[in-house]
Design brief:
3 helices
Amino acid sequence: MFAGLIAALEGGVGREPAAFIAELFRSRQQDARRLEPPFSEAQRASLVEGRVPDGPL
C-alpha cells in the first residue's frame, strides 16, 4: 500500500505531493465506512483479553 503512495509522491502522479495528499484525504473523507466501528464485538473481546483477534483487522 505505502509503496504505491511513495511512488506517486516521487513524481508518478505529475502533481505537487501536497496536492496529491490533500486529494487523497478528501476522497476518503466521505466514505461511510469511516463511521462504522473498526472491530466486531468478538474482536473487541479478544483485544480486552490481550489476544490478537481473528479475522480481518
